[in-house]
Design brief:
Layout (H helix, E strand, L loop, with lengths): L3 H26 L1 H24 L10 E2 L2 E2 L7 H25 L12 H26 L11 H17 L1 H7 L2 H24 L8
Antiparallel strand pairs: 1-2
Helix pairs in contact: 1-2, 1-7, 2-3, 2-4, 2-7, 3-4, 4-5, 5-6, 5-7
Length: about 210
């Protein structure tokens, strides 16, 4: 029988570690780059969380197997894909047109009109691409749905978003995402991802807390 105190201690240590990483990043790169990194990645974060929150019933791989394992698994659905991309893309438009253009919040721009639509679509669609690629890799390694794969689980969607940005909005990506901001995103995304997934698990929207 597992000791509940040990389980609680592990959760507490993970939370402290996550906040510690964020604090170190904040001190090293400064408050502006820290906030800018989160601001620019919000469409991707919203996409990733929304896909898990809304879920769906129609698997993208249509139940196809590659060898002994599914191509992607039941966790990747058309409904989750469409709703995730829509939420992330829509939130990005809200950031750009309302918060930046109307409210005049001094944060990095997603680009001039109509180019910002391309960068936002790359962020949201790339997030889902990276998430599916992560599932594809896990299935090829024989890992079942929900099995943990540290760092891949937390950063696959970031890689997908950056890949599409580099391919279709490369000039903007290179101009806006400095090396400090890239490092910041890589360091702060895992604890943020774990925190949101744990919340999703507690409210019944995630099968596992990672």
């Amino acid at each position: 029988m597992k000791n509940p105190n040990v389980k609680f201690l592990k959760k507490g240590l993970l939370i402290v570690l996550g906040f510690g990483i964020c604090l170190v990043v904040l001190v090293c790169i400064g408050i502006w780059d820290f906030l800018s990194a989160i601001w620019l990645m919000l469409p991707a974060y919203i996409t990733n969380s929304s896909a898990a929150f809304f879920g769906g019933k129609t698997p993208i791989d249509r139940g196809i197997f590659w060898g002994k394992n599914r191509l992607l698994g039941d966790g990747k659905t058309y409904e989750g894909l469409l709703k995730g991309v829509s939420c992330g893309f829509g939130f990005g438009i809200f950031q750009h047109l309302f918060l930046c253009e109307y409210v005049k919040i001094q944060m990095p721009s997603f680009g001039p009109f109509p180019f910002f639509l391309v960068s936002l679509f790359c962020l949201s669609a790339g997030t889902m691409l990276g998430d599916m690629l992560g599932s594809f890799i896990k299935r090829r390694l024989g890992l079942k749905r929900g099995a943990p794969f540290p760092l891949l689980d937390q950063l696959d969607f970031v890689g997908g978003a950056w890949l599409l940005l580099f391919l279709f909005a490369g000039d903007w990506f290179i101009e806006v995402f400095s090396l400090d901001m890239i490092i910041a995103v890589i360091l702060i995304t895992p604890p943020l991802h774990l925190l949101t997934n744990y919340i999703g698990f507690k409210i019944g929207k995630k099968r596992v807390p990672w």
